[in-house]
Here is the input.
Amino acid sequence: MKVYIMIPDAILVTYDAQEVILPTATGLIGVLDNHTSLMTSLESGVLLVREQNNEWSALAVFNGVAVIQKDYPFSTATLKVIEAPPPDVTCVVVLVTEAEFAKNLNPVETQEAYVLAQAELARASSKKEKILAASMQGRARSRYQATQTLPQK
Here is the structure.
């Protein structure tokens, strides 16, 4: 299975994977090879990829969509940025506004930011402040959870 993690201006990373766990609007979805075709919205959260060597990678992702289907679901001629996978390979294309590798995040700093964001949300009074604070709290939560998902090496 090929997994493409894309942000607005680039392909962030490509994996040859055994399994992907996606943070969707209705909960987590596990994807294995030969998964049925699907398009789903993604919430801010932790995206997990189990690579062919059985190692897990975690990314904090922020809102987007995922497309799952046999063969690459977009025209590679149009994109001109990736090599098309072989026919009949399950492809998972994740398009998110932003993504960060868990291994690059500091667990202590992300926890502190999460606690501050929770306090900011509790202090928010106007509708606009609450919407902004909830967005910041969700982002901070995703970053913190990403650091807690995999064992520290």
